[in-house]
Predict the 3D structure of the following.
Amino acid sequence: MNRYWDMTEQQRAAMTRDEVAAFLDVELMEKGIKKLPPLELQEERVVSYEKQEFYEIYAGDYSGSATGIIFGSIEDANAFTKLKSFKKDYNWNLGGSELSWCEPLQHVSVTPVSFPTKAVVMQIASLLKENKAIKDSNEKQTKARAEQISAIDKATKGIWDDWQDCKQKKSRCEQLIATFQEYVGLCDGDRHKALVFLKKVHDDASIQEATLWSNLEDLVDPVVQDTMVNM
């Protein structure tokens, strides 16, 4: 059984995202979490119905708000705008709905709207109920799937976090080694002198980390390597 955690840091850092993902099934198995089957959602049926044009009264500042007052003809709607009409209102900071008042409707206007009649809606009621049941079922499955995905993400987060840490460590160590190689060249091949200058720009912990990560077998002689490891 191949486990991500059985690989060395260097091996983990060299992996691609797809290669890391290949280890997730084992991680989930060990933590007792099942793989998710494909999510199968039902498709709602297409419902068509006839709409009828009505005329709704809008009132209030700026573009106004729908009042819910609707007429079947533009003539009746326009006639309503000429009436002195009122609306009930209240303020939560002034007693709430227990202390309501009436005030004239302002900026009354008419807006064409399209709605089906109640009779039309009743004719397609069974289809609407069927679609509502499908929608509720899909939402329930989607919510459950989100919770399952969250559990999987939590179970595999350690692997992804470690992979990122290993990649960052690899980059960090490679940059330090590259700097050391540059200093060796500037010091005419004197690795001891290059190490002295390297310690001016990197702390001991970073140098030791890079030494242990890369072993430095092809970069420094055993004397310098021992010096770096034992600092």
